[in-house]
């Protein structure tokens, strides 16, 4: 397990191989949601705005890394089915904005890990991105399988599954 909370093992427990889209990649190995997937034959693309880890990425990973702002990236090239979507852009409002910009009419995601950073949110100020993301993903036909995954006792992420997929 390389990921922060077992995202990689959770994905592999449902789907042995496939294609992933990782938005908010950060380090290529440490707390990576996709390194173990790649080690198990997965193909995919990771995107990160920070080029700090680009050199080590190319030394340790075979799958593609795009350095750039995912919020300004077009995703019209995505296939109709992506087995795993990892969404983790700081702050939480950027992750939610990214969720709204993905081509949901043309691409379905089998599994999604969505970092909402609820423990940082102030609900009274209207920044409840956990609730907003849950409503949107539910309306898109996804089922919340693992709510409020915690790190050090703080709820920060939800894990979703496409309701149309049978595992």
Provide the helix percentage. 10-25%
What is the gyration radius calculated from CA atoms? 15 Å
CATH topology: Rossmann fold
Tell me the distance between the termini.
22 Å
CATH superfamily: Vaccinia Virus protein VP39
How much β-strand is present in the residues? 25-35%
Mean pLDDT: 93
Q: What spatial order of strands do you see in the largest sheet?
A: 3-2-1-4-5-7-6
Q: How can the largest sheet be summarized?
A: 7 strands, mixed
- Domain count: the total is 1
Secondary structure tally, helices: 5
List the helices and strands and how they pair.
Blueprint: H1 7-14, E1 19-23, H2 35-39, E2 43-48, H3 54-60, E3 64-67, E4 81-87, H4 92-101, E5 108-115, H5 129-139, E6 142-151, E7 154-162
Parallel strand pairs: 1-2, 1-4, 2-3, 4-5
Antiparallel strand pairs: 5-7, 6-7
Report on this model:
The protein has 167 residues and is of the alpha/beta class. The protein has a single domain (7-162), classed as Vaccinia Virus protein VP39 (Rossmann fold, 3-Layer(aba) Sandwich), CATH 3.40.50.150. 25% of the residues lie in helices and 29% in strands. The protein has a seven-stranded mixed sheet with strand order 3-2-1-4-5-7-6, with helices on both faces. Strand 6 (142-151) and strand 7 form a beta hairpin. It starts with 6 loop residues before the first helix and ends in a 5-residue tail after the last strand. The relative contact order is 0.16.
């Amino acid at each position: 397990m390389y990921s922060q909370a077992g995202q990689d093992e959770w994905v592999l427990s449902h789907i042995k191989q496939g294609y992933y889209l990782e938005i908010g990649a950060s380090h290529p190995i440490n707390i990576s949601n996709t390194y173990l997937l790649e080690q198990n034959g997965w193909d995919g693309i990771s995107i990160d705005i920070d080029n700090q880890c680009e050199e080590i990425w190319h030394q340790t990973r075979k799958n593609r890394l795009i350095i750039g702002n995912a919020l300004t990236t077009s995703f019209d090239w995505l296939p109709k089915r992506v087995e795993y979507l990892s969404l983790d852009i700081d702050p939480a409002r950027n992750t939610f904005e990214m969720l709204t910009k993905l081509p949901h009419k043309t691409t379905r995601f089998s599994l999604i890990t969505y970092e909402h950073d609820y423990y940082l949110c102030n609900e009274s100020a209207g920044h409840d991105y956990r609730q907003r993301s849950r409503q949107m993903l539910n309306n898109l036909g996804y089922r919340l399988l693992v709510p409020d995954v915690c790190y050090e006792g703080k709820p920060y992420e939800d894990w979703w599954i496409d309701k149309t997929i049978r595992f």
